[in-house]
Amino acid sequence: MTAPTADRSTTARFTTRPRLAGDDWITDWDPEDPQRWSPRLAWTTLAVSTYCLNLAFVAWFLVSAIAPRLNAIGFDLDKGQLYWLTAMPGLAGGLLRIGWMFLPPLLGTRKLVTLSTALLAIPLAGWGWAVRDPGTPYAMLLLLSFACGVGGGVFSGFMPSTSYFFPRAKQGTALGIQAGVGNFGVSVVQFLVPWVVGFSLFGTSALAPEVSRDLKTGETGTMWLHNAGIVFLPWVALGVVLAWTVLRSVPVQANLRQQLDIFTEKHTWLMTALYIMTFGVFSGFAAQFGLLIKNLYGGFPDAPDPLAFAFLGPLVGSAARVAWGPLCDRFGGARWTVVSGVGMAASTAFTTLWLTPSGRGEFTWFLTGMLLLFFFAGVGNASTFKQMPMIFERRQAGGVIGWTGAVAAFGPFIVGVALSVISPTTFFVACTVYFVACVAIAWHYYARPGAERPS
User: Fold this and answer.
1) The pLDDT value given to residue 345
2) Which of 142, 147, 162, 238 has its CA 20 to 30 A from that of 116?
3) In the chain, what is the straight-line distance between the N-terminal and C-terminal CA atoms, in Å?
4) Among 236, 240, 283, residue whose Cα is nearest residue 128
5) What is the dotted CATH code of the domain comprising 34-447?
């Protein structure tokens, strides 16, 4: 696809930097020049940072896997309080991404990934402690939910940082793999937590299980809900070690003032709107999917177990993001963004029909509509990240990737708050209208013949 007519020379931006003793900066790097690019280093960086990003998403969505079980172990939280708990990581993730987006040129990949991964231990250990006592104040639960937002914040540092390592022709594939496999962290935590809370982990047998009570039958049992956070701590430690020993940093440098010029560019705001449609919706519904199932269908006999289905949506969306990266490299991102928007609008319109169910049998149709929504959101997540490196020069593209990711990270917060104050039907109708508007933007500016920035 053709890029904007602005100068695309990378020589001035990839200034050399002398290697100091113990320094982790590479002296010379230009992924568009085969003589100044190392595919081995690029793919190694992608592998390590993607592993760490997966753990970040685990931490970010930890509350979504814990919240549906809190009342079963003695907490007394109403629907609104539970929605707020699962929404708070989205608020924090969005706010923290605004800070993280400026860090890649300042810290470099090695320090950025290492320090960011180490911070994940705080919310993981914190929730392992908090669920031990049903008397833990709600304010503390909100604070720990906010701390989980670190896992969302690092995305706006990791993705621009990785983009510096790959030529434009491969960025759709590379960023699709990183974001898609990273997004799998949502499914990992939502699938793994229901399993690990059923037994004592090795080394934690000294921690007695929490007493659980079936809220329908009143039957009591035991649950190791504290395992939900603790089980991931060794993997975080491994990520810290890998990041520090394997990663290096490339000389893409820009001070804070230089990075702010993206906000004077119209296309920054247009791509932000499109990424809200894709990742904002993906992250928002991924955080609330379990509670939405519980609140809509939990009152019927033989009601579906929310945690048995909640991981499916993020799994489908993440797989679509990985799969569509190469397709976006081949056919361009803009046309797939249009396809994504049309599919998402149709999916929400269809799902609206099953938001006021009269029986358990309607759940299959509701689940089908939601999985289609996640699928098309995943396609759009891949396509928008292909578009941005094509629309903007390399330094700006990194900043735009960080900024759009920051705004879209508010998805869990927006969806959680919206569902706590308005009906699901009203919210889904509003989403459908927004998706249609985004399709018009993508077609007019990027996909149609003669578009302003074909991408």
Assistant:
1) 98
2) 142
3) 6
4) 236
5) 1.20.1250.20
The per-residue DSSP string of 191-216 comes to HHHHHHTTSPPTT-TTSPPEEEE-TT
Q: Rounded to two decimals, what is the model's pTM? A: 0.76
Domains of the chain, residue spans? 34-447
Token pair recorded at residue 96: 């923290």
DSSP line for 122-147: HHHHHHHHHTT-TTS-HHHHHHHHHH
Q: How many Å apart are CA 384 and CA 396, to the nearest integer?
A: 15
CA dihedral 238, 242, 245, 251 (to 10 degrees): -140
Say how far apart CA 321 and CA 455 lie, in whole Å: 17
Residues of the chain with pLDDT under 70: 1-23, 198-218, 252-259, 394-395
CA angle 333, 339, 345 (to 5 degrees): 135
Q: What per-residue confidence (pLDDT) applies to 20?
A: 38
Spatial separation of the C-alpha atoms in residues 62 and 25, rounded to whole Å: 34
Please tell me what DSSP assigns to residue 218: -
Q: 302 in the Ramachandran plot: left (φ > 0), alpha (ψ -120 to 50) or beta? A: left
Its sign, for the CA torsion 282, 286, 287, 289, is positive
CA distance 226 to 21: 44
